[in-house]
Amino acid sequence: MKAKKKDVRALTKEQLRAFFEAQGDKAFRGNQVYEWLWNKGAHSFEDMTNISKKTREMLEENFVINHIRVDQMQRSTDGTIKNAVRLHDDLIVESVLIPTPTRTTACVSSQVGCSLDCKFCATARLKRMRNLNPDEIYDQVVAIDNESRLYHNRPLSNIVFMGMGEPLMNYNNVIAAIDKITSPEGLGMAPRRITLSTSGIPKMIKKMADDEVRFKLAVSLHSAIDEVRTRIMPFNETFPLDQLREALEYWYSKTKSRVTYEYVVWKGINDRKEDIDALVRFCGYIPCKVNLIEYNPIDDGEFQQASSQAIDKYIHGLESRGFVVNVRRSRGKDIDAACGQLANKQV
Question: Is residue 1 part of a domain?
């Protein structure tokens, strides 16, 4: 039985160099192949034009490039683009390009489905099939960068890990992907332009701090009252707010990087004065800012956008205590590309 070909992008540059040496070739061929794979985004060995045909054939015999394919691209009336990305095993994830007048942001996925159970999120209703590999995360960014250049005449400026999946439940692969994205041998993007959004896994937040990551951290909070948060995000029972707070205090003590709290206000769920007061107290623990996010319904009516008066009370409560608060209007709602809507509906 013929051995299954190895994904060449699973090899480090040193492993590629060693492979060529073992074949009786020069080690620097590994450097050339590595550059084609990551910096130039080659989809096939035939693309590697500065490598001999014989060497390309040898690579073809031993390896495969498991490249993603954009199966379907949808364009919103506001310029947002949603990609349905087909992986090498025919599973699908979604990623989004979000344009503003000054930047273009890639919202990328880290898992097929999701490991968590947030009640308000369409992705959470999908079974988690598997984690994405570093190259599959990287390829989403490359595809969106190409679309940014094509449709908005500028390169991608920012990346947020806010697509399908919980990034901290796929920690090693996400970190490896960010390393490639920020490397001069990859996309060369500055770490400060990358934000990882988590629902809050305390021990992994501490691990990020210990690993001295240089990207930004956002936490999908939505309530600073345990009973309320557990109702809408049941895993909060396993990782309650006191543990999350301790992890975030540890994060700040190690990184001196302020945290962004993402917060949706829902009618009849977290729109009371005590909800505002609890958030204000939680914001007092470490330097932070709050993004109040417009809610995007996912068809069942259980969660409804709070009134503008409730939002204004949150803004006043936070700003009167000196906290930075922004209201984020959702983009791409007409193509189900907004926060919480990614659910592979078109596939």
Answer: no
User: Please, which residues bridge with residue 293 across strands?
Assistant: 328
Which tokens is 140 given?
């989403």
| Residue 94 appears among annotated catalytic residues | yes
**Catalytic residue among 60, 94, 283, 294, which?**
94
Among candidate residues 141, 127, 130, 66, the one with its CA nearest the CA of residue 96: 141
Q: 94 near 344, Cβ under 8 Å? A: yes
Q: Is the pTM of this model over 0.85?
A: yes
Q: Which of 118, 283, 288, 339 is catalytic?
A: 339
CA proximity to 177, closest of 119, 132, 212: 132
Task: Kindly report, residue by residue over 173-209, the tens digit of the pLDDT.
Answer: 999 999 999 999 999 999 999 999 999 999 999 999 9
CA distance 273 to 23: 70
Q: Do residues 12 and 102 both lie within one domain? A: no
Does 343 reside within a domain?
no
CA–CA dist 294, 274 (Å, integer): 20
Domain of residue 56 covers 6-64
Question: Quick one: 37 and 94 in the same domain?
Answer: no
Active site residue 339: yes
